[in-house]
Each structure stands twice: as C-alpha cells, then as structure tokens.
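ESCALATION

Customer reports they have been waiting on this structure for their group meeting. Please prioritize. Original submission:
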Amino acid sequence: MAYPSILPESVDSEHKMKILDVLLKEAILTDLKSLDKKGVLEELVTPVARIAGMNHEYLVKVLMEREQLGSTGIGEGVGIPHGKVKDLESLVLGFGLSRKGVDFESMDGLPTHIFFLLITPENSTGLHLKLLARISRILKNDPFKQKLLHAVNRDEIYSIIKEKEEEL
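Update from on-call: job pushed to the front of the queue and completed.
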C-alpha cells in the first residue's frame, strides 16, 4: 500500500525508497558525545526535530517509550532507534556516529557506534518497515560499516551511503 501524501516529491510508489531520499546532510552527526541511551537520543533528535518542525522533548519521549518495549540496539555496533508520531507529514531520518561507542542495551551486549534514527508518521507502517529493512540490510555489510566508522565528516558519510545504495 502506498501513502503518496507522506512521500517526498522525489519518490513515487514505483520507486524503491532510498535512505538518501529522506536523510538530509544536516541530520548526519559525525561525533556523538553522549555515553548513554537517552543522551544519544537527545543528540540524534536535535537536527531531526528542527527538520520536522517538531518538539525536541516530545520526540525523545516517543523514542524512549519505544526503547522500553525492547532495545533498538540490533547488535554488531548498530542501533536503529525509531518511533511514530502524530502530525508528521513525512518520515525523517537521522544518522549518528559514536567514536567511543555507547551502551545502547544491544542484544549482543557490545557498544553501539552507528545509529540511524527514524521518525515516521503514525499511519505509515509499510514505508517505515521498508526503510528499516533497507537500513538493516546494508548494515549487515562489514566493509560498509568500517567505512562509516572511519569517515571524517558528513559529506564522506553521505557519499559512502550513496555508493552503497547504488549497488542495491
């Protein structure tokens, strides 16, 4: 089922949604400072809240509530915090890199370094799941993760993701 009203103009229902269709450069954070889950979510939400025109505290609350259902730290150094909100027109994606690694209560108990933050409109389950699946799939690739971890700035991260998506 397609939800044309929530897609960016560049995306139509025939087109497979790409990460870069919804990840803006200003939502890429290359040096997360926080060492705990709530702190990382606060940092990740900052540009996303601005882009979406939403309240920062509210988004953090939605994400923390989702974390209580089970950690979105999927293991192998990766976290994909996500949440659904009312009154959001289109989904928003953020990216963050923690050089030190964060205890994100991952399934494997290892520190989390790579974060994709996904905020979606309440009624967009299909889209939400497609994008989560796409992100999970590319993050299973170790050389790709290594490149991200060694990237020095947001332009480099953007290029690495773009290159990987062109292969898919």
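Sent to customer with the following note: The first helix runs from residue 19 to 22.
Escalation resolved.
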